[in-house]
Design a protein that fits this description.
The protein is α/β, with parallel strands linked by helices and about 270 residues long. The chain has eleven helices and seven strands.
């Protein structure tokens, strides 16, 4: 039976990852932007891939459940890649929390019920999660134990506490690492693995938009003072995702892989200052 790949979010990284993983599989492309998924599906179909599409709102349990049901009806789901997210320049604080925090929690829970034995999943998070203060042990436990839709009701995710979209984005991405670690047990019960990847400054449409934002100067300083001294590319991220989804990573689950060219190291060592 043909294996199924699910890619949620079809921006620059989503498209590159989809093309890398799609050969020999049925690929389900999902995004809130119907025009974007249909355009990519047309390009990939022309290039010989077997593609299906589904509009999805990752902040909705019903919408994600419908996506999981569709994918499972096509064959064994062996790979799930969640790239959907909103950046601080794209959306207000509340929307970022719904998509980047609640959306990840819902995906992890819902797909844990349908992935096939031996499957691998990857959540695309962000290196921003490494640049915000750590959660307390009590806060981490609340993230693990709170229902996805109720996460936004926790006081440390309130608009009053976070203050602005940039902080909400970083805190949501730090929470993704806790969420993935916690989900590894449920995925493991099905013989599947789940990990996350935290990209640095990547040359995508969203990344370029952030570089032109008020925080762009700091981002450029991070890149200029990093060990590699360059922007990342979607292919850099796809390389890491390919590893985590493959058999070479069969003993790796519940972790985050930081793929940032050394930009976080530049901050933590003081070479790039906020």
């Amino acid at each position: 039976m043909t294996e199924v790949l699910v890619v949620i979010g079809v921006g620059g990284m989503g498209e590159t990852i989809a093309r890398r993983q799609a050969p020999g599989k049925i690929t389900v492309l999902a995004d809130f932007n119907e025009a974007a998924i249909e355009a990519l599906a047309e390009r990939m179909t022309t290039d010989g891939f077997d593609v299906r599409t589904q509009k999805v709102d990752v902040s909705s349990r019903e919408s994600l459940t419908a996506l999981a049901t569709l994918a499972a009806s096509l064959g064994p789901i062996t790979q799930v890649v969640h790239t959907a997210g909103l950046s601080p320049t794209q959306a207000p604080l509340e929307a970022i929390l719904r998509v980047d925090l609640v959306g990840v929690a819902l995906m992890l829970e819902i797909f844990a019920e349908v992935v096939a034995p031996g499957a691998g999943g990857v959540v695309i998070s962000s290196s921003s999660g490494y640049l915000v203060p750590a959660f307390t042990p009590e806060q981490e436990q609340l993230i693990r134990s709170t229902a996805p839709e109720a996460l936004v009701d926790l006081d440390f995710f309130s608009a009053e506490t976070l203050g602005n979209p940039g902080v909400a984005y970083g805190v949501s991405k730090r929470a993704n690492r806790v969420q993935v670690q916690n989900a590894s047990a449920a995925w493991g019960e099905r013989g599947a693995r789940i990990n996350s990847v935290s990209p640095g400054v990547i040359s995508t449409a969203m990344g370029r938009q952030e570089l032109e934002s008020p925080s762009g100067a700091f981002m450029r300083a991070m890149v200029e003072n990093s060990g590699t001294g360059r922007l990342g590319t979607p292919s850099d991220i796809a390389d890491g995702v390919t590893f985590l989804l493959g058999q070479q990573a069969s003993f790796i689950t519940g972790i985050d892989l930081l793929i940032d060219g050394g930009s976080v190291a530049a901050v933590l060592t003081g070479r790039a200052r906020p």
